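ok so I'm stuck.
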Amino acid sequence: MSKSFIAKIEEIILKFTKPDYMDSQEKIDDFLANKHESNKPIKNSFHSFDFNGMQVFTFGEKGAKNTIVYVHGGAYVNEINWQHYIFCLLMSRRLDAYVLAPVYPLAPHHKAAESFKAISDFYENLIQNHRNITLMGDSAGGGFVLSFCQYLKTIDLPQPDHIITFSPWVDISMSNPPYDNENDPILGEIGLKEIGKSWAGDLDVKDYRVSPIFGDSSGLAKMLIFAGENEIFYKDIKKYVEKLKRDGIDVRFITGEGLFHIYPLFPMPEAKKAFNEIKNEIR
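replied:
not stuck anymore, here's the structure
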C-alpha cells in the first residue's frame, strides 16, 4: 500500500527542516557544548503541576476511564513541543483518558539516572490513585518507557496495564550498522551516537536503562509498537520485537509502509489508522 499524498508532503517538509547536527560531527559537538538549559517552567495554555520539582502537564479529567503517562521524544535533548501537546489532548478526548506528560530532565545537563529517579517517584505516586495505566512514548521517550518497564522489576513496582511506543530508540549505542541516514528525514547516526553518550552519562551505552534491547524483557506488560519502514531505527526496533516474542511478551508490531519516524503523531490518514489501533488496544 502506497503512502498518502499528505504523508509525502510532510516527508518533504521534514527533509528541509532536519536538524543539521544529526549528520555532522562538528555541529553535534557544538550543539551539545552550547545547549542552553532553562530552569523555568514551560508556559502555555495547558494545565500543569509540580511534582518534586518536575513539571507535569495534564490533559483530560482525573476520573477518566484510562490513565496515560506520555513520555515525550526529542532525542533526550529537546523539550516537549506542540506536536506532543496536541496528541495528548486528542488522546484525552478520544480515549476517555487522563493524560500526564512529565517534563523530565534532559541531556546534556542531566543524565538518564536522574530522569529514572524522577519518573520512578512519579509513577509510584501515580499508581496509588489511578487505574488502567498505560505508559506511552515516542522516539527517545519510547525507548525510555521500554527501559523503565524493565527497571520496574528491580524496584518491586507493578507493570502498567499497557505499553505503547512510537518509533522507540531501543539502542542508543547504534551498534547495528549500517544505518540508512539518507531516507530518514528527521534523524542521523552521527548526531544520535553523541547524544546517546551524553544521555548515558556514567552508564554503558548498552546498559538496559538506556538501551532496552540489551535488557531482560520477560514479564513486561502487553505491548503495541509502531515504526516507520523508512526510519533509521526500523531494523533495531524490528530486532527488539523479535526478542520480545522470544521472551514471551504479548506484542503487536505495526509497520508504516514507506513511512518516517514517529508517523502516528503527524496529521495524515496513516496516523488516523494508528490512532484506531491505540483505541482498540486500551479500550
